[in-house]
Amino acid sequence: DTGVSQDPRHKITKRGQNVTFRCDPISEHNRLYWYRQTLGQGPEFLTYFQNEAQLEKSRLLSDRFSAERPKGSFSTLEIQRTEQGDSAMYLCASSLGRQNIQYFGAGTRLSVL
Amino acid sequence: DQQVKQNSPSLSVQEGRISILNCDYTNSMFDYFLWYKKYPAEGPTFLISISSIKDKNEDGRFTVFLNKSAKHLSLHIVPSQPGDSAVYFCAAKHTNAGKSTFGDGTTLTVKP
């Protein structure tokens, strides 16, 4: 399977704990995106990378959130001191160059108890 | 301020009939529009797109229409099939931007 993969698929954590998600994009894709989706809503943009450079961050991305893509391949999204409001599906997508079409992974569902 | 709106949360049609899904946008900087389909437990998958220089794009049973003056686009599925039952997201972007802005989706149910 050469699609976008995300790990873990599900994460249950207690409020105040830190969590980290991983995304492996399609291998030749140089752009990588993170979105968050809550029930009944569409994906909301969080941040994106071109190679290892983080080019844009949403105002939604509080200082508890940090994303990295150290070698321009896989990316991690860390949430520190999780809150119940962080419960959502976290989607990763990738694209090639300035291609408009984004290819999504199946997401990581986070539940904060 | 929701820049992309899908005002119908759900739509039910009979197999073989036409499905029409609608989307409105407010940001004049958007110049590229996409439709994604999402099945349960999967990520969104690209379906069809249209550039603002066109007013129609067709791909098999799927056609997207763009009315720039009204800031409105629609997705037509003809004929609808039960396998088309899914959530459909409208997305918009500026070509030079990375991110896409999504609507909240329309759940399409095609009844056999």
Instruction: State the assembly state of the protein chains.
Output: heterodimer
Q: Based on CA inertia axes, which overall geometry of chain B fits?
A: globular
Count of DSSP E strands of chain A? 11
Report the sheet with the most strands of chain B, covering strand number, pairing sense and barrel closure: 6 strands, mixed
SSE sequence of chain B, one letter per element: EEEEEEEEEEE
Identify the overall geometry of chain A. Answer: globular
- Number of helical segments with 4 or more residues of chain B: 0
Computed over alpha carbons, the radius of gyration of chain A is 13 Å
Major sheet of chain A: size, sense and barrel closure?
7 strands, mixed
Tally of strands of chain B: 11
Q: Low-confidence parts of chain A, pLDDT < 50 over ≥5 residues?
A: none
Instruction: Report how far apart the termini of chain A are.
Output: 33 Å
Q: Average pLDDT across residues of chain B?
A: 96
Short summary:
Chain A has 113 residues and is mostly beta strands. Chain A contains no helices and 11 strands. Chain B has 112 residues and is mostly beta strands.
Describe the structure.
The complex is a heterodimer of chains A (113) and B (112). Chain A has strands at 5-7, 10-13, 19-24, 31-37, 44-50, 53-57, 65-68, 75-79, 88-95, 103-104, 108-112. With 113 residues, chain A is mainly β. In chain A, strands 2, 4, 5, 6, 9, 10 and 11 form a 7-stranded mixed beta sheet that branches. Chain A starts with a strand and ends with a strand. Chain B is mainly beta. Helices cover 0% and strands 54% of the residues of chain B. Chain B has strands spanning 4-5, 10-14, 19-25, 32-38, 45-51, 56-59, 62-67, 72-77, 86-93, 101-102, 106-111. In chain B, the strands form 2 sheets. In chain B, strands 2, 4, 5, 9, 10 and 11 form a 6-stranded mixed beta sheet that branches. In chain B, strands 1-3-8-7-6 form a 5-stranded antiparallel beta sheet, with no helix packed on it. Chains A and B meet through strand 4, strand 5 and strand 10 of A and strand 4, strand 5, strand 9 and strand 10 of B.
